[in-house]
Amino acid sequence: MAPNYCEYVRAAYKNPEQPDFSFIRRAFHNRPYDPLIRKLRDFAAVEDLGECEDDVCFGYLLKGQNALWRLELSMVGPFAIFVRLSNHVRTTDFIGATLGEVSGFELKIVDKLKSYGIRLLTPKDLMQSVELSLYNTPRNKTCLYQALFSDRAELPWHTDHDDTGVGIDLSQNLQTTSAF
Mean pLDDT, to the nearest integer, of 135-153? Predict the structure, then answer.
């Protein structure tokens, strides 16, 4: 059964017209994902990306033998984004609840996230509209990604109209810690 994302958004922000962002301070104080991150460090190099002004998530880089992944853990509820990184990441590189082709390393991460009750979201999930007024995103354009992870007016992925499919443009964002 899919979670009711709006319940989590309402509980965290309290008022969609004038959101209360105090949950961010509580999350940084309580560090709810620290036990999970300690477990992930048993089989992955995990780098904390620190905080960004517009984020409502904890961001991490996971380093495998020959690859890099980004893991974002929402402060709003038990939700995560787990994505393979490269110069041009497609939506098929988002590792979600329905596992396509995944490596053994990715499966370990997914299993550990599930064991902590964390739901992995896909770009399709993240595009769901949410009624919420944020600073950087117009109210009529707010989607689940902005409510659960980061208030960026532009989503960190875009749609290609050629045969490469849907992807995320990482060419400019790999130098920063605030975007995929």
Answer: 88
